Amino acid sequence: MKLLKTGAVALNQTPLDWIGNKNNIIKSIEKAKETDIQLLCLPELCISGYGCEDAFYSPDTARISLEILLDIVDYTQNIAVCIGLPIWVNNKIYNAACLVANRQILGFVCKQNLPNYGLFYEDRWFQRWKPEHIDEISINDFKYPVGDIIFDFKGVKVGMEICEDAWVNNRPAPRLFDRGVDIILNPSASPFAFHKYKIREQLVADASRAFGCGYIYANLLGNESGRLIFDGDALIASGGDIIASSDRFSYADYTLTTAIIDIDTNRIEQSKTKSTPLIGKKTVVSNLEFDFSETPQIEPFKQEAFEIGGYIKEEEFARAVCLALFDYLRKSRSYGFTISLSGGADSCACTALCGLMLKLGDESIGIENLKERLSHIPEIKDAKTEEELAKKLILTVYQGTENSSKNTLESAEELAKSIGATFYNVNINGLVENYTAMIESQIGRDLTWQTDDITLQNIQARVRAPGVWMLANLNNHLLIATSNRSEVAVGYCTMDGDTAGSISPIAGIDKSWLRTWLIWLEKTGCEVKQKHIKIEGLKYVNALQPTAELRPAENKQTDEKDLMPYAFLNRLEILAVREKKSPMECFKYVEHICKEEYDRNDMYNWTVRFFKLWSRNQWKRERYAPGFHLDQHNLDSRSWTRFPILNGGYTYELEKLKEYFEGNQQRKRRGIGF
Q1: CA-CA distance, 416 to 397, in Å (whole number)?
Q2: Which of 141-155, 275-289, 375-389, 505-519 has the lowest mean pLDDT?
Q3: Residue 674: what pLDDT?
Q4: How much is the pLDDT for 298?
Q5: Catalytic site residues (predicted)?
Q6: DSSP letter at 130?
Q7: Active-site residue among 5, 22, 41, 44?
Q8: pLDDT computed for residue 545 by the predictor
Q9: Residues of the chain with CATH 3.60.110.10
Q10: Measured in whole angstroms, how far is the alpha carbon of residue 397 from the centre of its chain?
Q11: What is the CA angle 661-662-664, rounded to 5?
Q12: How far is CA 461 from the centre of its chain?
């Protein structure tokens, strides 16, 4: 029986952080050696970082990556390690993975399939390696094979697929199978999206079954470069089963997942499947022998508690955004978060996430390790509890006017109190009046709600920005912007007012679902160690109807009255933006699907309103603070949904929709079916 002890590492890296990335890699290798791992897979581009963007064009990025690789080689005695990095071959840049064994570089495998959709832009920087092509790369006067190669460790053959290679139809795995490969390594940088971990598990398990091999999948962890979140989903499969999986959303520098693979059992399965052997292709031979004496322990695959609790999306949203906020805070070397806490759903969600970040961090690595990872913040040195940390790290300020209510003040104050955050209550009514009087004196008339509604609303939002920025600057904090994806779609915000901020953590989630999440966090909460972490201070905001509170109280202003029902807005946004449907197609869809929920006249007016607001507010979407990618659809104009700032405003399409709507209205009045 030939057994092999394998490992997959999830690394929390930062683009171009050469020393930090190298230290994380070396620490993970040393840990693997302590546990007698023989073959270890690290993530894609883990030396340089995955999100280097146009820095990949700099020759220094590849040059320093090779220097770091040579430093790491010295730590690979008696172990084989797959390490991702960019390389230059014949003045072309490739996304590559190097296999190092027993302090020797064996060769480089290059990525054959590059993602170039959604948030991916790899075709901008990298070349696609041609299958079955081999070349050489020279490092310090030594030449190493590069390209589509496999590695032979005294009879145990190892091949690679790099991330996207495994997600396409023309993947390398069938050719590796034809060459009798025993182990396939997959160094990946696969960003988080809701429920995506299930797809990964299926992909990895199916590959191990179809190709009769052990399959080792390593991924990145945390907020690597600002917008992308990596959940650290590392997997090992054999014979069609996941035999080991990492804990996701860890706050550690790395996680190590291990499993013993039975090579002989997989070979028996390979022998049952007919294929055409590929003879004479490049194989790199190593003198490092793989053979492990321990008997593999076959245990049923176990999911984390929160993955089987029935609230996967709620748990994933909480854990992904909290980890992203923590890494953003840590890597930007900021001292905390400042939030203009209005008491409404959006600012309360952002505040709750900051508080939850500390609770989940404590669950993951403990208070002392959490403080050690934030050691650049001197104010938290003596903090002993989550509440003491929150007091220093989370600053909230309620900025009320004469239009603000006692309900929103109570909502803001009680939430801040429930998580231990610092809370300030500032009245800005005088500032609003001063600005209003200043402009009135210049234009020679009074500003009134009858003639100047939007202007009088916007000045209240804008006056709030300087004060909260001042508090953020005083404390070296990140200012949190609080716009959600539904507001982003239609520009329901005040630029340089409520959009002010360094990071926008909920810009990737729609308002309709966010409100249900807040109720879940109040009443159910994250499942941690057989108990639930709740934030009961959310009960005040959950009892309120969303409102900007910018008009006088007698107007009874609400967001949905200003716009449309948030659930309907979200449906339209998905149809129009993600599925690229025209106004006519969108309306026909909703008038059929939603006819029991809403009046047809309302649905028509809302559809027209959505497209008009969408088309005229692209300039706002260009200026939003960076947000996090959370699913397979996003409105981020810099990395996902591109749309012209100046455009036709759907004039032609909306005229056709009007003809259709009015024609059907006339037919309905005449009693003609349609």
Answers
A1: 9
A2: 275-289
A3: 42
A4: 56
A5: 44 (proton acceptor), 111 (for glutaminase activity), 163 (nucleophile)
A6: P
A7: 44
A8: 82
A9: 3-290
A10: 28
A11: 70
A12: 29
- 334 belongs to an annotated ligand binding site: no
Cα angle 516-518-524, degrees, rounded to a multiple of 5: 90
Catalytic-labelled residue, pool 111, 157, 359, 391: 111
Known catalytic residue: 46? Answer: no
Check if the beta carbon of residue 251 is closer than 8 Å to that of residue 373.
yes
Please tell me the least confidently modeled range out of 305-309, 524-528, 542-546, 665-669: 665-669
C-alpha atoms less than 13 angstroms from C-alpha of 266 in its C-beta half-sphere: 29
Is 198 annotated in some ligand binding site? no
pLDDT at 452: 94
Contact between 575 and 607 under an 8 Å Cβ cutoff? The reply is: no
Report residue 45 as tokens.
Answer: 């581009």
Q: What backbone phi and psi angles, to 5 degrees, belong to 460?
A: -65, -45
Of 46, 82, 163, 213, the active-site residue reads 163
The whole-angstrom separation of Cα 311 and Cα 527 is 9
CA distance 90 to 6: 34
The residue-averaged pLDDT of 394-420 equals 95
**Predicted pLDDT of residue 300:** 60
Q: Is 620 annotated as a binding residue?
A: yes
The yes-or-no answer on residue 313 being catalytic is no
Ligand-binding annotation for 406, yes or no, is no
Residue 471: pLDDT band with limits 50, 70, 90: very high
User: Whose CA is closest to 322, among 418, 382, 393, 259?
Assistant: 393
For domain 565-674, the question of CATH label 1.10.10 is answered with yes
482 is in an annotated binding site: yes
CATH architecture, domain 3-290: 4-Layer Sandwich (3.60)
Which residue, chain included where needed, has tokens 């981020």? 636
556 is catalytic: no
Q: In which residue ranges of the chain is CATH 1.10.10 found?
A: 565-674
DSSP 218-237: E-BEEESSSS-EEE---EEE
Tell me where in the chain the CATH 3.40.50.620 domain(s) lie.
307-563
Question: Tokens representing 180?
Answer: 């009798």
Q: Is 324 left (phi over 0), alpha (psi -120 to 50) or beta?
A: alpha
Bridge partners, residue 218, by sequence: 187
Say whether 117 counts as a known binding-site residue.
Answer: yes
Average of per-residue pLDDT values in the chain: 93
Q: Do residues 485 and 508 touch, judged by C-beta distance below 8 A?
A: yes
Please check if 417 is assigned to a binding site: no
CB 304 within 8 A of CB 530: no
The mean per-residue pLDDT over the stretch 397-419 comes to 95
Q: pLDDT tens for residues 82-91?
A: 999 999 999 9
Cα(488)–Cα(624) distance, integer angstroms: 8
Percent of the chain topping pLDDT 70? 95
> Does domain 307-563 match CATH 3.30.465.60?
no
**SS3 at position 616:** helix
Cα(257)–Cα(34) distance, rounded to whole angstroms? 13
